[in-house]
Amino acid sequence: GILIGMLNEGIEPNVVSYTTVLGACAKTKNAPMASMWLQRMRSRNCSPNYHTYNTALAACLDGKLESTFIASKIATEMVEDATKESACGIRGVAKYKSTLP
């Protein structure tokens, strides 16, 4: 995939890159893959923003019970990030960093 190619070339994906990949997961309604990419994103110290979370949640709209559980996990992570952000604030432009709408 494109993110793996970026990493192989020494290019670190950013929040926009990951959100684009999550968009592909949403298009195919692949909740497990969306969850996996969110975890990879976090493991590379790239913080999801509001758009990232909404895109990942859109991947869970397939009506399957498993996807509901995944969506609940993603939503919980979003609320935790938003709570931290509300308490601490963010540095820089919030446009691509904020978990708050």
Description:
By secondary structure, this protein is mainly α. It is 65% helix and 0% strand. It is built from five helices and no strands. Helix 2 (15-27) runs antiparallel to helix 3 (31-43) and helix 4 packs antiparallel against helix 5 (65-88). The model has no long low-confidence stretch (mean pLDDT 89).
Task: Note the run of SSEs as H and E.
Answer: HHHHH
User: In terms of structural class, how would the helical and strand content be classed?
Assistant: mainly alpha
Q: From the alpha-carbon coordinates, what is the Rg to the nearest angstrom?
A: 13 Å
Low-confidence segments: none
Please give the count of helices: 5
Strand content: under 5%
Q: Mean of residue pLDDT?
A: 89
Helix content: 55-70%
| Strand count | 0
Q: Cα distance, first to last residue?
A: 29 Å
Q: Name the shape in a single word.
A: flat
User: Sheet with the most strands?
Assistant: none
